[in-house]
Amino acid sequence: MASVSQRSESCLQSVDPVLGDVVRQALIAAPPWLDFAVISGKRTAEEQRALWQKGRNANGDIVDASAVVTHKDGARKPSRHQTGKAVDIVAFRDGQISWKAEDNYIVAAYVAGFAAACGVRLTGGVRWRWDAGHLELETT
Ligand SMILES: [Zn+2]
Predict the structure, then answer these.
(1) What residues have a C-beta under 5 A from ligand 1, the ion?
(2) What angle do CA 25, 32, 28 make, to 5 degrees?
(3) CATH numbers and ranges of domains, the chain
(4) Cα of 95 to ligand 1 centre, how many Å?
């Protein structure tokens, strides 16, 4: 049984309680070999804009595709993080954060599957094949 780190908990406190509760339960129930943390929850428009700026110039043109972390600019294209309907998780491998997409797809698929079993529908990177650790409440 995993414990919920302070950072994970503060991210989970910031989001929709349905999302926060199910991800917290998934963390607690995760087997030891499937270690992960929550690294982002609710964001302001300014925080989203700053993330969108990564890899882009002042005009918003992509200048370094490898640095791009989001296509949502926080204004014209808001992120579901801004309404507290999304979290980002990251996998740990051998006690270290792993940014490898394959590791993050595994933990995201686990969380989405756990949530589905609890009747909470999540979508995100695991379905889009991009932004592996992003999970959001599915809109109905
Ligand atoms: Zn995200």
Answers:
(1) 88, 134
(2) 15
(3) 1-43+81-140 (3.30.1380.10), 44-78 (no CATH)
(4) 22
